[in-house]
Amino acid sequence: LNEWEPPKFVWRTLYTLLLLGLVIKRVVWQRKLNMAQTIQQIARVGPDTLGVAMLTSSFVGMVFTIQFCKEFSKVGLTRVIGGLLGLAFTRELTPVICAIVLAGRVGSAIAAELGTMQVSEQVDQLRTLGSDPVDYLVAPRVVACALSLPILSVVSFTIGMAASILLADLRYGISPNAIVDSAAKYLETSDIGVMCVKGLAFGGVIATISCGWGQTTTGGAKGVGESTTASVVISLVAIFVVDFFLSMIFF
């Protein structure tokens, strides 16, 4: 036992959980947040993710439209296609797709940035100057991702539905009014709320994992690359795990 050392993954996971607790303590209970850094991170997260998320949602929506229209046209149920698309997008597809894009586009950048600061001892310099790295580096990024992802999800949902309506009209001759009426019939306000809650949770998880893995980076440039890759992979796994538990709670 004296010679046994836990795997590095275990220590990093524990540190990331501790980091999440510190962020919640600072933001929720103590209400301490560096607004300048948070606004700066929000301005960075939104533009970096919006274009890719909209493009991805558009093509995913069109792929599902092809499958739904082809199969439901055989049994004369084209008037339920809009409702199925709306439910699929709001409950699962849109928040998960946007979270995956955020993890690859922003999460990797956060891990690389904090990892570089860690190996170059910039984080230690912040402590020497009397600044708390959690307040200055971690909390603004977690809040920015958590607030930005629900907004990105709503925009991507709108674009995805618009692309689906356009394809259904041009390719299969299904009236846009039929899809819109069907979506309005089946969708409820709570479905939009679930989408936003999932986006909030996914954004917080992605940013926390990226910050945790970035701040535990060792080994110079090689360690930064390994931390960046590992943070993206673990974020993707965490997205689906959290999505499962949230779906169990809501549905």
Descriptors for this entry?
251 residues; Permease_MalE; mainly alpha; elongated; ATP-binding cassette superfamily; transport
Q: What would you note in describing this structure?
A:
39% of the residues are buried. The chain is 86% helix and 0% strand. The termini are far apart. It is mostly helical and 251 residues long. The chain contains 8 helices and no strands. The longest helix has 40 residues, at 35-74. Helix 1 packs across helix 7 (189-215), helix 3 packs antiparallel against helix 5 and helix 3 (81-119) packs across helix 6. It has one domain. One of its GO terms (cellular component) is ATP-binding cassette (ABC) transporter complex. It is a multi-pass membrane protein.
The portion of residues forming beta strands comes to under 5%
Helix/strand structural class: mainly alpha
Percentage of residues in helical conformation = over 70%
N-to-C span: 45 Å
Oligomer: single chain
